Amino acid sequence: MPEASTRQSDPGAASYVRFEGVQKSYDGETLVVKDLNLDIARGEFLTMLGPSGSGKTTCLMMLAGFESTTHGAIYLHDQRIDNVPPHKRGIGMVFQNYALFPHMTVRENLAFPLKVRGMGRSDIETRVKRALEMVELPNFGDRRPAQLSGGQQQRVAVARALVFEPDLVLMDEPLGALDKQLREQMQFEIKHIHESLGVTVVYVTHDQTEALTMSDRVAVFNDGVIKQLSTPDVLYEEPANAFVAQFIGENNRLYGEVVEAGDAGSAVTVRLDSGQHVKALPVAVSGARGERTTLSLRPERVKVNPPEGSVPNVLEGKVAEVIYLGDHIRTRFSVAGHDDFVVKIPNAAEHPRMHEGDMVKLGWAIEDCRALDA
Amino acid sequence: MADIPAAGTVPEMRRDEELTTADGRPLRVALRRSQRQLRRRAFYLVAPLLVFLLVTFGWPIANMIAGSVYNPEVAHFLPLTSSAISDWDGEDVPGEDVFAAMAMDMESGLANRTIGRAAGRINREIPGARSLVMGTARDLEDMQPPYREAFLAEDERWGDLEFWRLIKRETRIVTPAYYLLALDFEYNSRGEIVERPEIYQVYRQLFWRTAWMSLTITALCVLLGYPVAHLLATLPLKTSNVLMILVLLPFWTSLLVRTSAWIVLLQQQGVINDLLVWANIIDASGRIRMIYNQTGTIIAMTHILLPFMILPLYSVMKTIPPSYMRAARSLGATQFTAFTKVYMPLTIPGVAAGVLLVFILAIGYYITPALVGGESGIFISNLIAQNMQGTSAQLKLASALATILLVGVLFFYWLFNKLIGVDRLKFG
């Protein structure tokens, strides 16, 4: 994955968790994780994002110790851990369905990791109390998990993963079972706990919004490979390849081939399959003539009826669908042979309302149109 | 409802008054009426089963319990004697009133041909009493009052206090005699409850043996079934299905076939002994006795009852997500601690259901102990069956034994409910 290697790690920070050439296969025929190299800094909130089956959960399970690595090494704090059994790794973990022990009260659940570590009774009591206060459930110690709401169970699960003060906490789609409103609130709370405790968090999700709002860095997985590892804003604004552009946020795609490399690689001219020429920023193309490429364009960067000469790229589009969304109007155009070209038009006075079948001009800047791999 | 413009279509709510439906009936009455129909329909659906159970289950059990204490012979066939003897103190030969009553009972008993049954009842406890009663009854025509002297002249055994005490005791319609017998007690000649002579004691020992062997079988089923159920619940579906068929296979085979198979395997000229001899582990003369004793019963019954342990265990284990064990491990517990502190407590409803099923089935088991139990490995149910084929007295004894067994099972169920709570059980 050449496109990802440049951003693999922050050279300034000492690496706290390191995957080195990790491969994983379940059946001996296909690789679920292909040559994973990843460095996570101390105190970082790193999210593994990807569609299901992309290998992100497998990576988390290998880090936690529930799956063995087929090849490669995992280091935690410069100690090789891929042969250490899970209970000796000292990693906190929040599971998808919380995995709170149903036969124990909340207090017993929280005391469990302390008890197995042979901690004294009074010590356990103070720590459990502190943990319950941290997640704002001080009076829920005697309840059973089944007597708690989803959000409360979630908080207890977080508290349990943190009560024995691990330096590293793993979270496996912890908010998947919550409704939207609660999920947003819990995102904020987990982020807050992360910041106040300074623990390192590795978070797995398939929800890109969640990944963008919570993380310091996001590793986008696809097909067992990290497609891009970067901060949320870079991921959104500067996707390194067509998969990331498509997976993160909304994206319009146009297909074509390079016909002319620009000066010093500043812009390439691409002939679309429908015949029009477009100038684009070369990101994942070499610039050789005839190379296939995917052009990526964010819906909010497209200008409708731009003033003559203000933008280098102008194409004709026919309105195919208009969806009223209050603050903006989502308009689907038929452009250059694609009828899934979406533009978000702000609901403001200077933008006239459009109707199905209208012909309009659509324009955009070179740097907003990224030429990515085919 | 605020949007509905037409006033009056919605009944006005007043706090101090009962809620009513639109046509003014109290809401509670209307609700009950609407639910009554549903309840009635549900009842009709289960009614056939209810009747069936009452006829085939409730009625016979009630009959059995009644039969085990019912003792009508003396009271019904010697009615006058019964009432006359009630004032007797039992210290000396009864007075003339008792003898006179006996004479009149004999007279009517001869006419009704019922005297023999009364005599038979007494004879059961005092051998020879039948000939005494019948002989005297036949000679009654020639006797004159006072009957006391006449009877004593006829046969001096009429002066036997034991005989009269027995009659007085047996005038009770409800008797604990069969329960005493079922627990190896009896009345002595003075009418006191004492243990039977040691060589006649069978039942207490057999109850005890039935209980401990059932417990052993249950324990073995837990030990053997737990790992199998765990394997079934954790293996991939394809493999676990094959394993499940292996577990269920015994269910589809006749009980007799399975028991006979154990005879083939375990007998002294059987497969296992042959193998051991062939492998020079034992001597041909030292073949091990593994069947027609307690070992045989325990082995065969454990095998037969094992599925009843595995299935509830499996159904409970299947619902325990693997993430619980993982969570415990990630929190620092070793495999062993995670298993004992998290997994095992969660399987208790299954263990309890299996224990209850297997123990209750085992304690009343009949065929297998009868076939492979020999002398030392039979259960109380085998003796109940034996007694059922005997005289009416033995039938009553069988009823008493069976009732004790039933009470024992109910007691076990009660204890179990106290300790674990039956509503927590999962039978699968």
Q: Any descriptors?
A:
heterodimer; A: 374 residues; alpha+beta; Rossmann fold; OB fold (Dihydrolipoamide Acetyltransferase, E2P); 2 domains; 6-stranded mixed beta sheet; 9 helices; elongated; B: 428 residues; mainly alpha; MetI-like fold; 3 domains; 67% helix; 1% strand; disordered N terminus
Helix-strand layout with pairing:
The complex is a heterodimer of chains A (374) and B (428).
Chain A: H1 2-5, E1 15-24, E2 33-41, E3 45-49, H2 56-64, E4 71-76, E5 79-80, E6 91-94, H3 106-116, H4 121-134, H5 150-162, E7 168-172, H6 180-197, E8 200-205, H7 208-214, E9 217-222, E10 225-230, H8 232-237, H9 242-247, E11 252-261, E12 268-272, E13 277-282, E14 292-297, E15 303-304, E16 313-324, E17 328-335, E18 338-346, E19 359-364, E20 369-372
Parallel strand pairs in A: 3-8, 3-9, 6-7, 7-8, 13-20
Antiparallel strand pairs in A: 1-2, 1-4, 4-5, 9-10, 11-12, 11-14, 12-13, 14-20, 15-19, 16-17, 16-19, 17-18
Helix pairs in contact in A: 3-4, 3-5, 5-6
Chain B: H1 27-69, H2 73-77, H3 79-85, H4 96-112, H5 115-123, H6 129-138, H7 147-154, H8 161-170, H9 177-182, E1 185-187, E2 193-195, H10 203-234, H11 237-248, H12 255-266, H13 271-278, H14 294-318, H15 322-330, H16 335-363, H17 367-372, H18 380-388, H19 392-419
Antiparallel strand pairs in B: 1-2
Helix pairs in contact in B: 1-19, 3-4, 4-7, 5-6, 10-11, 10-14, 10-16, 12-14, 14-16, 15-16, 16-19, 18-19
Question: Concise description?
Answer:
The complex is a heterodimer of chains A (374) and B (428). Chain A is α+β, with helices and mostly antiparallel strands. Chain A has helices at residues 2-5, 56-64, 106-116, 121-134, 150-162, 180-197, 208-214, 232-237, 242-247, and strands at residues 15-24, 33-41, 45-49, 71-76, 79-80, 91-94, 168-172, 200-205, 217-222, 225-230, 252-261, 268-272, 277-282, 292-297, 303-304, 313-324, 328-335, 338-346, 359-364, 369-372.
